Structures are given as C-alpha cells and as structure tokens.
Amino acid sequence: MINITIENNLGERQNLEVPVDMGFNLMEILKAYEYDIMATCGGMALCATCHIEVLEGADKLPECNDNELATLDTLPDADMNSRLSCQIRPSTDMNGLVIRLKALQEA
C-alpha cells in the first residue's frame, strides 16, 4: 500500500491508501473511493474525464505515452503538470503523490 493525497478546489486534502499489487490504474482507484470521475472512454486515454493535476511527485510518475499526450493536447487548461489518471498505475515509487482532480473543476 502507498499513500496518495487528493486536494480539492478549496485546498483541503484527503489521504488515500492505494494498493499497488492489484493492477488497478489511478482512475479505477479514485472511482472506488467514490470520486465523481466519468471515465467515459473506460481508461483508453481518449476522453480526458479523468484529468488530474500533479501537485507533488510528478518526478515519481512514468512518462506520458503518445495517446495520453494527444488527449491532453486537446484540453484548454492542460499544462505540464496535467496527466490522465487512467494512464497511471500506482507503484511503490509513487508514495506521497499529491494530485488535484481537474475534470471535476470543469464540470
């Protein structure tokens, strides 16, 4: 298990315990914790409804693949800290990651 922190629009933070041995991506974990993520494309990096901003620990994440980069490029508010949570598989290296859900801000 690792700890990942979710920050809301008000700056309030919630810590989540995240399994690293079950093969889930971060989007699936956020949905399991009942965050309101649409995940319209089912994790294929096509819809960006799981868009997150990495506040701390971006250096702990694997690089974006071409599909993720192409989808992020279509978002007007994406920046160098943007990622799609469906493309991130939690690992022990990601302990302490801090993110903000961007898709919720746009809804």
TrEMBL record:
SUPFAM superfamilies (alphabetical): 2Fe-2S ferredoxin-like
Entry GO MF terms: 2 iron, 2 sulfur cluster binding; electron transfer activity; metal ion binding
Keywords: 2Fe-2S, Iron, Iron-sulfur, Metal-binding
Protein name (database record): 2Fe-2S iron-sulfur cluster-binding protein
Species this protein is from: Dyadobacter pollutisoli
Keyword Metal-binding: yes
GO biological process, one term: P450-containing electron transport chain
Bilayer-crossing regions: none
Cofactor(s) it depends on: [2Fe-2S] cluster
All residue ranges annotated as the 2Fe-2S ferredoxin-type domain in the record: 1-105
Family to which this protein belongs: Belongs to the adrenodoxin/putidaredoxin family.
Xref: Gene3D superfamilies: 3.10.20.30
